[in-house]
Amino acid sequence: MRITQGTFSFLPDLTDDQIIAQVQYCLDHGWAVNIEYTDDPHPRNTYWEMWGIPMFDVPDAAGVMLALADCRKAHGGTNYIRMSAFDNTYGWESLRLSFITDRPASEPGFALDRQERGGRQIGYTTRAYSAMKPEGERYS
Amino acid sequence: MDAIDLKRDFAASGLDAELAQLDRELVGLAPVKQRIREIAALLLVDRARQKLGLSTEPPTLHMSFTGNPGTGKTTVAMRMAGILHKLGYVRRGHLVSVTRDDLVGQYIGHTAPKTKDVLKKAMGGVLFIDEAYYLYRPENERDYGQEAIEILLQVMENQRDDLVVILAGYADRMDTFFSSNPGFRSRIAHHIDFPDYADGELVEIADTILARMGYRLSGPAQIALGDYVARRRTQPHFANARSIRNALDRARLRQAVRLFDRHEGTVSADQLSTIEAEDIRASRVFAAADTATPA
C-alpha cells in the first residue's frame, strides 16, 4: 500500500528536477529545508530521524540536493525520505511544506486489528507489516 | 535561427556595465581585466553555440588567483561572482569566502561534514578559498587537510555547473601547493597572476579610497603621498593597496589630532575633509628613511 503523507503524495513520485524546483521555491521564500528519514511508516509516527541539521543559509537547491544524495546513499531503498521546509518568520514558526522524496521499493501496507470490548464495542488499531521486524531490517 | 548577434547578446547580458565598473573602480590590474574579458567572451560564445545547437562542453571555470598581499584578489573574486552570474554561469552569484579553519576539522570525522557544509552554502555561487596552501600541510601526514582537498576535488569535478571554486594565495606558496596536489592544478583552468601596483597606481587607489570616505588630498599632500609610497615599498611587510589603506587611516588620525589641537573656534567642512602634507609626512616611514640615510 502506497503511503500518502505530505504534499504531492497522490501524484507519481517526484523526479529530481521536480524536487529541485520545489526546494528552490522553499529557499526563495527563506524557509530552511530539512531532510528526514524513517522505516516506520505509521501515520502517527510524526518525528522522523533527521539527516543532519536543517539547512539554514543555503541559497541554492544544489546544496540541498548534495545532502539528499548523501542521505540516499545511506538510507535510500530501505527508508522513507522526506523533505520539510520550516518557515521561521514571526507568526508562522512552523512547517510550510513537506513531501516524500524516496520510498522503499515495496510497501507491504497495514494490518487492521480489532479489539472486542464490553457491550459489543470494537476498537481498531493499524500496524504496519514492515514495522513488525526490528528497526533496520524492515525493508532490506 | 541560424545567426546570432553577439554584440546584442553582450548588451543584453548587462555585462558591459559590470566590466565598465570593474575598469573604473579597480586601478591597474591590466592582465587580470584582460583575462576576465576573455572568460566573458568565451561564455558568451558558448551560449551562442548552445542556442544554435552546436555541441558545448560546459567550460571549467575554477580559477586560482596568485599575487602579493593587497593586490586585489578578494575584491576581484567578489566581482567575478557578479560577472559569472550575469553570464548565467552560476545561478545565484553569491560569494562564500572561507579559509582553512572553515573547511578542516579538529578531530577524525569532523572534516567531511564541515567541508560539505561549506560546499552546500556555496552551491550556485562562487567558493573563494583564501590562502589555499594552508589546506595542505606536508609536515604532518595525518593532517585532516587532505580529506578536505579530496572532497573539494570531487565536487569541483562532478558539479562544475553548480559551483565555481577560486583559490587564492601568494604565488610561490601556491606553486608548491599545486606541485604537491596535481589534481588541483589539472582541474583549474585559469591561473591568473595579480601584478604589484606601480607607485602612480597606488596614489590613484588612495584617491579612490579617500573619495569614498569623503576626504581629499591637498596638492602638497598628493606629492607627499607619492614620496610615501616610494619609501614604503622598500620597507618590509609592504602589502600594496592594503598598506595604503592603513596609511590613510593613520593620516586621518593625525588630521583629527591636528584639527583638535590647533584650531580655536570653528572648523570648516573643507578643513574637515582635507588631508594636508604634514599629516602624511609625520609618518614613521619618513622617520625611518631619514635616520637610515646618515647611518
Helical residue percent of chain B? Answer: 55-70%
Number of helices of chain A: 2
* Shape, per Cα inertia axes of chain B: globular
State Rg of chain B. 23 Å
Percentage beta strand of chain A: 25-35%
- Calculate the terminal CA-CA distance of chain B, rounded to whole Å: 77 Å
SSE string of chain A: HEEHEEEE
Q: What is the name of the CATH topology of the domain at 16-106 in chain A?
A: Ribulose 1,5 Bisphosphate Carboxylase/Oxygenase
How much helix, percentage-wise, in residues of chain A?
10-25%
Query: Spatial order of the strands in the main sheet of chain B?
Result: 2-3-4-1-5
Q: Hey, which two chains have the biggest interface?
A: A-B, 13 and 16 residues
Order of helices and strands of chain B: HHHEHEHHEHEHHEHEHHHEHH
Question: Mean pLDDT score of chain A, rounded?
Answer: 93
For CATH, the homologous superfamily of the domain at 16-106 in chain A is named as Ribulose bisphosphate carboxylase, small subunit
How would you describe the oligomerization state of the chains in this entry? Answer: heterodimer
- Please state the structural category of chain B: alpha/beta
Provide a brief overview of the structure.
By secondary structure, chain A is α+β, with helices and mostly antiparallel strands. In chain A, 20% of the residues lie in helices and 29% in strands.
